[in-house]
Write a structure and sequence with these properties.
Layout (H helix, E strand, L loop, with lengths): L24 H16 L4 E3 L9 E4 L15 E12 L2 E7 L2 E10 L2 E7 L5 E6 L2 H13 L10 H18 L1
Antiparallel strand pairs: 1-2, 2-3, 3-6, 4-5, 6-7
């Protein structure tokens, strides 16, 4: 089921998400809905808070190079993630389903290693120094109540806020 995306500056995006303790049918339904929602909006990642659910759960599905397909079985379901390592720095252009149509170059760690649980509560470790590393950091930021535009310089942030307010008025 496709759910509504929480759009910036909704206060829910500032919430620090709660740890998942129940790895049950309702969590599985949430993850399935998150996949449907992400695909319908042409995203590569989605945090539970972006569909209004205050839980430390996120999904990432990077399109396949040859076909741009995002088969469900390629979806990385990350519950209760913890950073183990972060190193290096790199800039990538990022966008966000909660801030549609806005893309900015954001500096993040080049290499990350995290521990997390899957939908059944099993422990896993993953590390990456490519686009997946960027996506993981972006989505974990959501779990910590942050959106990517908060990483912009003050000048760029003010410009964004002004343009965003103008855009929001025009869509009402």
């Amino acid at each position: 089921m496709v759910r509504d995306i929480v759009i910036y500056p909704d206060k829910r995006l500032k919430l620090i998400s709660r740890e998942v303790t129940q790895f049950d049918a309702s969590l599985h339904a949430l993850l399935d809905d998150m996949y449907d929602t992400m695909i319908s909006k042409k995203g590569v990642g989605l945090a539970a808070i972006q569909v209004g659910v205050n839980l430390r759960a996120l999904i990432i599905n990077i399109p396949e190079e040859e076909s741009d397909a995002q088969p469900k079985e390629n979806t990385l379901e990350i519950i209760n993630p913890l950073f183990i390592e972060k190193s290096g720095k790199e800039k990538h252009q990022e966008g966000c389903l909660s801030i549609p149509g806005v893309y900015e170059d954001i500096e993040r760690a080049k290499h990350v290693k995290i521990e997390y649980q899957d939908r059944f509560g099993n422990q896993h470790t993953i590390e990456d120094n490519d686009f997946l590393a960027v996506a993981i950091q972006h989505e974990i930021d959501h779990l910590d109540g942050k959106v990517f535009i908060e990483k912009l310089s003050i000048l760029k942030r003010k410009k964004f806020e002004k343009e965003w307010k103008k855009r929001q008025k025009n869509t009402l």
